[in-house]
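Narrative of activities, Objective 1.

The group set out to show that a structural description can be obtained from nothing but a protein's sequence at a throughput compatible with the screening campaign. Below is one input-output pair from the validation batch, recorded exactly as produced.
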Amino acid sequence: MYDLPTRKRALALLAQGRSLNSVSRETGISRWSLRSWQQRLHPAPSRGVACWRCENPGGLPPDTAAYSYLLGLYLGDGCVSRLARTYFLRIACADAWPRLIVECERAVKAVCPEKSVFRVQRQGCVNVTAYHSHWPCLLPQHGPGRKHDRRIALEPWQQTIVDEHPWAFVRGLIHSDGCRITNWTTRTVAGQRKRYEYPRYFFTNKSDDILRLFTDTLDNLGVEWKSARHRRGGHNISVARRASVALMDAHVGPKS
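Output recorded for this entry:
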C-alpha cells in the first residue's frame, strides 16, 4: 500500500522522537501501520536479542577499531535516548562534512551489523540514528542529563579497546568536537614583513572527564598539547607543535 520512500520518510520522522499521532497526521499513514513497521524493524527486547555484551560479559564488538571511533563520536556529539520499547543512538554530523556522515554510518553498522542505520536531516546537520534495545550495554556512559553534568568514565573493556586503537578514538573525538585549522602570523625578515601559516588541531568540550580521556590518550601517543579556557565554557585542547601536528595529520587529518 505504501512505497519504500514513504516508509523511510515516516520511520525517519519517528526516529526524531515524534509521536505516532503526529507522524500519522503529517503523512496520512495509519498509526497501526506505523507501529507495525517499528515493531518489524525494532522488535521488543527479549532474552534472545543478540548483544555481544549480554551474551558474553567479556565479549567485544565484532570490529573493535570501529567501536573505538564510534565511542569518540558518541562522547563528542552523540546521545542515547529511550523510547517505549527500545533505545536509539543519535550522532549529529554537520552537513559540511559528508564523508564524516558516511564514516559514522559505517562505524555504527560495523559495531551492530544486524541493525539498520538511518539518516535524519535536521537544519544544518544529519542525525545518524540506529535503534537497539542494548545501546546502554554497548555505551554504558549513557545516563540522564548532559554529559558534562555527570561522571564519564570508561569501563575496563572499553579502555582495552581504546588502548588497542587509540588513534581511532582520537579521530572520533576530533571528528565530533574538534577541528584542524590553519593559523597564520607575520614576521619581519630582512626588513620585510612575511606571512607564515601553520596548522593546528583543536578539541573543545565542557566535560572535564571527556577532556581527560582525550588528553590521556594523546599523552600515551606522544602528542604534545596545551589547554585553555573556552569563551563559551569548557576548555580548548590545542595541538600546535610541528611534530605532534604531523602525527595527527598521519592518523587523523581534517574533516571532509
